[in-house]
From TrEMBL:
<dbReference type="Pfam" id="PF05678">
    <property type="entry name" value="VQ"/>
</dbReference>
<feature type="domain" description="VQ">
    <location>
        <begin position="13"/>
        <end position="39"/>
    </location>
</feature>
<dbReference type="InterPro" id="IPR039608">
    <property type="entry name" value="VQ_1/10"/>
</dbReference>
<protein>
    <submittedName>
        <fullName>Vq motif-containing protein 1</fullName>
    </submittedName>
</protein>
<dbReference type="InterPro" id="IPR008889">
    <property type="entry name" value="VQ"/>
</dbReference>
Length: 62
């Protein structure tokens, strides 16, 4: 090297995913992607099952 004392370079890799959802499921999708615990309001179980199926299909494609 030429004698320069530089700080090490930090490399950040960001993985992106295309996700389609509705307003009712948005919070649950974000929590699923970030690893946070999600709670589904009572009566929203059907939406949650649909979301889970969509997420599983997305994971299978990658």
């Amino acid at each position: 090297m030429s004698g320069c004392n530089r700080d090490p370079v930090k490399v950040v890799i960001i993985n992106t995913h295309y996700v389609e959802t509705d307003a009712m499921s948005f919070k649950s999708v974000v929590q699923n992607l970030t690893g946070k615990d999600s709670t589904v309001a009572e009566g929203k179980e059907k939406d949650s099952k649909i979301l889970k199926e969509r997420m599983e299909r997305m994971a299978a494609k990658t």
